Amino acid sequence: xxxxxxxxxxxxxxxxxxxxxxxxxxxxxxxxxxxxxxxxxxxxxxxxxxxxxxxxxxxxxxxxxxxxxxxxxxxxxxxxxxxxxxxxxxxxxxxxxxxxxxxxxxxxxxxxxxxxxxxxxxxxxxxxxxxxxxxxxxxxxxxxxxxxxxxxxxxxxxxxxxxxxxxxxxxxxxxxxxxxxxxxxxxxxxxxxxxxxxxxxxxxxxxxxxxxxxxxxxxxxxxxxxxxxxxxxxxxxxxxxxxxxxxxxxxxxxxxxxxxx
Length: 261
What we know:
The chain has ten helices and six strands; from the N terminus they run ααααβααββαβααββα. The chain is α+β, with helices and mostly antiparallel strands. The mean pLDDT is 88.
């Protein structure tokens, strides 16, 4: 019995000593955390999507508190979260335009030509290195194998009839699909943009028509209609400047192939 009591006493004494030492160490080596960082982190949604450009919500909170990121840096939280963080930081949240992802392709299965039948990996990034960059004749268009779908944490993008389509109401503009697409077909556009060019082909008109019925043929008719100088040709494809666009609709009305949504 005496041996058991002695053993228990020794173990208890060791525990007390270790506890004291840990307490001293925690005070001596503790890292000071800005209280604002903790408050900012509490307001962030916690998706850790990386759309802000930082390694998760913790990284963004640290950057905002240190002045290295804007208070409206979270694309998921949007203006509501930005206003709360601005109040914590004691600054103005500023105006932020809600954006969504947009796929610049209209080459659905019934409109685009097929150069061969492909059987294999269902991943756009892997298919991009096979001969011809996949089975579709247009090397600029959507392959339709859904790499963008797999990286979306919000179920906001799906392949419909061979082309990726974004659900504007679910999209939070995190940018993962933009970074994943090997053909660089996806871009972030203003949520309220009413006119969007659904093509990325840089081929000349004749070659475009030979591969896809829905491609931009570079006729420049849309550019001649725009009174706001908001649409121009860039390497044979029409490109809209959304800061200038007034959504008048003249470009879409004049487009002979109806490639402007």
